[in-house]
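Continuing the series of single-chain predictions for the mutant panel. This is the parent chain; the variants come on the following pages.
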Amino acid sequence: MRKHISLWLILLPIFFLSCQSNPIDIPIPKNEINITYTNVDQVLSNVGLEEIKNEIPTFENQLGDLFYYELSQNIQQQLNDSSYIAVYNFYQQEYVKDIEIEKSKLVKTLPQHEEQINNAFHYFKYYFNSTSIPNNIFYINKLFSKINCTDAEISIGLENYISPESSVIKAIPEMELHNWQRQRMDIQYLKRDVLLSWIQVQLFEEIDGNLAEHLIQAGKILYVLNAVFPKESEAYILRYNEKEYKWAIENEAMTWDYLVREEMLFSNNLQTKMNFLNEGPKTVGLPDSSPDRIGQFIGYRIVKNYMLKNKSLSLQELLKTKYNKILQTYEIQ
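Parent structure:
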């Protein structure tokens, strides 16, 4: 497998202007998209030992290295001729059975989410025609790990989208699944999470720069994300609820002043970057009322500000623009 998504996901909002002034608010492009959706769990959790033995090679042939990787992670061993027994035993565990029952309640809603994902990939192909789109998107139990991508496939663990009010989720100890993680288990974000992962993997290289460079890269990723979901709110793109989004907007100037005053922007300190970019219950260093990932929010605001001043700039040109050039244009609205 050639690529995996970064350990931290980056997302952000976008202020919507009128259709006349917002260059990314365009009709769904009419281009060809051919993505196959496969529910691996629905098959492997509902058949016997011999059927699993026959299904694994079929899935591996269709879904490639990513399927091999995900299944190996679940059974904690490399696949071999006898691995079908371990796969069968994995799905027969009571805990996994309970999860699969809860996930089955989401299945009837998947077609509408898949249609929305396809629409987003129409936009992606319009903006980045020379960049590939996935051949396959498949659902497989990942024991609450993140979405993964290769150059041709995307794997999704639907257990991440079970309602936090489910008895299965409530039974998980707090130390294993924190409350802030539970509150993000919402199927409405499936399409956003899928495209975010694909954008990160296909369009961006991992960097090891200072905080400012990471902020701008986060902002670029989120600007592209909004371009493939032009009708969604900034709060949705950011994965903030309304209270979190309101805090971020109202405290943008305070946050920027803090970063400047503490001389953090050009710091290469790993902990500082993690504090401002990673998921968590809050942004470390800011008030307890702050949402997490404020660094991503600031990065988006900087990129958005730059694009408003350079409306003729294409998304591909934006991706090539140096971070310090974008940073110099920032003005808090």
